[in-house]
Structures are given as C-alpha cells and as structure tokens.
Design a protein that fits this description.
Layout lengths: L7 E5 L13 H12 L4 E5 L6 H10 L5 E5 L5 H10 L7 E5 L1 H4 L2 H8 L3 E3 L4 H13 L11 E5 L2 E4 L22 H7 L16 E4 L2 E2 L17 E2 L2 H14 L4 E4 L8 H11 L5 E6 L6 H9 L2 E9 L3 H6 L6 H13 L3 E8 L6 H13 L6 E4 L7 H8 L6 H6 L12 H17 L5 E11 L3 E9 L6 E8 L5 E5 L6 E5 H4 L8 E3 L2 H9 L3 E3 L4 E3 L2 E3 L11 E3 L5 H7 L8 E3 L9 H22 L2
Parallel strand pairs: 1-2, 1-3, 3-4, 4-5, 8-11, 11-12, 12-13, 13-14, 14-15, 21-24, 21-26, 24-25
Antiparallel strand pairs: 5-6, 6-7, 9-10, 16-17, 17-18, 19-20, 22-23
Helix pairs in contact: 1-6, 13-16, 19-20
Amino acid sequence: MTTNNYDILLIAPKYGVFGHFYSFPIGLACISGVLKFNGFRVKCLNLNHHEDEDKVIDEILNNNEIKIVATGGLSAHFNTIKALRDKFKKYKDITFILGGGILSSEPMLMFDAIDIDYGVLNEGEETIVELVEYLLNGTNSSIENIHGIIYKQENKVLLSKPRDSIENLDNLPYPDYDSFEIDKYLDMQKPNDDFTISLFDDPRMLPVLTTRSCPFSCTFCYHPLGKKYRISSLDYFFKWLDYLLSKYEINILMLLDELFSVNKERMMEFAKRIKPYNLKWFAAMRVTDIDDETLKVLKDAGLYCITYGLESASDIVLKSMKKKIKVADVENALMLTKKHDIGIQGNFIFGDSAETKQTYTETLDWWKKNKQYQVMLSSISAYPGTPIYLEALMDNKIEDKLQFIKDGCPQINLTKMSNQEYIGMRQDIIDSIYEYKLYPTILESKITGYDAYRGNLYSISLICPHCNKENRYNNMHKVEYFVTKTCCRECNQKFDVPVEKMFCDYKYEDTYFFNSKQAVEVAKQNNSVDNQDSQHTQYCYYEGEVIENVSQNCVNIPYDNLKSFFTENKELPVPTKIQFGLASLIRDRRTIQTEFADTMREIKQNRMLSHG
C-alpha cells in the first residue's frame, strides 16, 4: 500500500564496507538539490548507511510508486553500479538513469554493459531536470531535443547534442546533503580514517565545492564535469557554509575543487573570509601558484594541508604529462609548505609513456633524498576518458575495454620499456617505499572504547618523526593494512605508523602477500600466531618470483594456485589475511578479497571434513 508520493529514487552506491568511512556522494546531492528545487518528488538513499541493501530498497519500492531510479559514479565503481542496476531489472515499469564519470568517459560502452534506459553526460543539473520532465510529464516534444543524454530509439543507441557547461554556478540550488544522511557521515568519522582528518579526536569533515573542472589538460586526468573551468562567487559559497554550520557541527572543510588556487585574488579573499569561522581546511593547489607570503596568510586562515599535483621528479616526464611545471617548481613549493608547518599530500606516479629507467631512477633518487616530504609513490593508471587511456587503446595495450573496466582499470605498461623492465621499475618502487618510510616512536597504546562497526577504539601516544613533538590520539580504530597514515598535530606532516605497534592487542595472522619483499621482511620477524587451531610462527606466503635463501616460514605460491597448494600441503596453516602492496593485479581488490575469503573458507571446511 502506497504511503508516500515519491516518483524518483536517487541511490548512492555502497562504495566500501558498511559502517566504514567512504567518499560522500556530493554529485548525487547536487542532482537531488536541483530536482527538488524544480518541484519533483525525490527520495534519496545512501546505501553506505544501510547493511541490508535489498531490504531497504524493497521497503522504499513497496511504500512508493517509484517511476525513476537514478545513480552515478566513476569507472572504479563499475561492478558496484552494475550489481545495483541488476536489482531493478525485475521492475519493468521503472526507468533507470545513470550519470557520472563512469558513463561520460565511455557512454556507448557503459550504456550497453550496465543496460540502462537513459544516461546523463557530464554536468547533470540542467539535463536531469529536462529528462525527468520528459519522462514524467511529457513536456518535451521529442527526446532528441534534450542535450547531453544517451538513449535508445528503435533499437539504436544514440547520443544527443552535447550540452554547454553551466556558466553561472550561483544559479544552482545548493546540494541536498540532508537527504543523503550527512549527519551520519559526520558522526562516523574517526581520526585514522584518513590522515587528512587526524587533526581531531572527533573529526567532522565536510566536503564542499567552490569551482568546477580545471584549466589544465594533464594526460592522466579526466574531467567529468567538462573541460571548462568555472567558479562560484564567494558570497554564494559562504551563504551555503552558514547554512551548513547552522545545522551541523563541523571542524574541517575538504575543498573538492580540482584546482583551488587558479585565481590568487579569489583565494586570498577566501582566506580572509574563512578565518573568522575558526575551521581547518585543505585544498588542491598548483606548485607555481604559491609563495612565502601567500602560504603565511593561508596558514593563518586555517589551511593545514595542501594537495599538490607533483607526479614526477623528471622534467622529461612532466613535459610528457603536459604538467607545465618544472622539478624546480616542485622543490620550491614543498620547501615553503613544510617551512610553514602545512601538511603535504602529493604523489609521484610512475609509468608515463616517456618513462625510462633513467627518468624513474631520477625520480626515485630525488624522493630518497627528500623523504621528509613523504610524497607517495604509485604507478600511473589509464582511466577511461583520459588521453593516456585513448593512447593505450590505439596502441592495443588495452585489448578489451569492458574487461579492463570490470577489472578495476589495472595498471598496465604504457612505457616503451619491456614488460620485464616495467616490472623491475615497480619492484624498485616497492623496495624504496619499505626502505625509506618515516616511523614515529610509539609511547603508549591502550583500549579506551568500542565502536559497533570498527571494534575496539584506542588512545595512542607517539613522537612525530618530523618535529619530535609528542602527540596523543583518541578514538583510533584498527585497520586491515600493515601501516596506517596519520599526521602530526603540531607540524601537520604525515607519517606511517606500523599497525602491530600501534594497537596494544594486535594479533599476528598467517598472511598472503602480493608484495614479495614485504613478505620476506615480515617473515624474518618470526612473529607468533596464536589462534584456536594452533600456536606457531607466522607464515608469510607471497605472489611473484621465487626468492632464494628465505626463512622456512616464507613460501612462494602463485595466487591462482592457492587452492591446489593448500589442498596438497595440509600441514601448512591457511592464511587468514591478504596484503596487496603495489603489485599489479589482474582484478580489482574487492573481487580478490572476496575470492580469497571464499577459497580459504572452502579449504578449511575440506580439512575439517577430512579429519572426520
């Protein structure tokens, strides 16, 4: 029996594990805001706050006459979005709409692969209003008159004329955070969910936007909101902020702008206006946009961390990436930022088409000499819609586009190096990471509370490896990795904390590693595993080439041979944990985690049965 009058259901997919931190769906909140502003009856569902997806979806459908279901996301969310779409196939009278970068980057492919009815391309506010009016009220005489969509007509998939970017962002209604349960999102945050929010024992970080897109065209970037850079007025933004602060307790603002520092005058005016709010905030900036005086003003206004697009310490690679910066610019920006005790977030991404052994060695050597900046190392990914993705298709380095996206867009060799040289580069990166980490000195760890979804909560005292100041953190929770990143509350610099030393009740587990070097190093420690089955020295199994002269508890097993190996070698303990490292995977991590858990469970069951 219908008890409500909602016509449209907007769904934020579950991006991770229920009850854990995730990225708030600000894009869908924008869509909800504009639909409600135009008078449509919209129900929003944030699956990240619901353990039983099917139950809550069925409840909404049973209590409403839903005619349209809409969702969105990025290419990395393909499997999640496809599973969500499949839930609605049995409802033949419901129209399914998809938007976001996942569709805009590969519209024809995704339309068929996910089997949607309509798609909204790029910026969605104006398009979704016209499309919904057409579907519910028939106000447009013809579907092709709606710009910026993909649809099917007479069994043909068609793209309508592209829609121009929205010029005046101030004309848009504010995002509908309330309906996606922003209060729960704020309440769930813990200081080690992300190092950028570890400033407070009870962080309440709110993501916001003040601009759209980016004026640059780096080869590894895709701009789902279009290529034209636009800004909202500061009056518009601060009116919104006042509203948010009147409803929610907030202590951190995360500016999601792709590049906040384009207009220096505007940035300095923002600093002047944000200072009285006494909020901490962080933003993405360009290394050429800052100087000593600018950083001084920004720090005084509450800025505590800057995300820089660093990418490489080779001018040859930076030029190939179309970064339009030099290594000297990177060095200057990082030096000044650390001088003002502002945190640094940046990455070196290896594997551009211009990468050679000389260039990646140059970057690694620079990184080793400058480990105080804790620049993160990873390999470049060819995400759909990016220039390097299109180049990889032309060079047949991606043979099956759909499978590539299903597998989570795994890192591939885009360089002119041989595959053996490329693998060697990746191993050099891994070796460097484990040799040059900065670790704090742990002074104390004790259990102080409990969270229903995170388990035990801890109070941890440590000495920062950067400034040697003592820090105490409360409400810290266990993580699945061997290290967790946090930042110093004095100098704002980040560092790694070994989990085994961070949590007083840490228990070692037999583990399968995709990083052979990490497996060897952990095996050398001869940690003790104490569980219901037995007490023994920790076993470290690993993927990759066989390493000679390792300890007996360090065993090489190709991932695809796990089941057969443990079936034949019943005397060896079955791993209960998996560690990825930087290894190149053929499938996405969530898929592998599920496969691994299922395989290990089956092996254990078979062993129990064989013992009668």
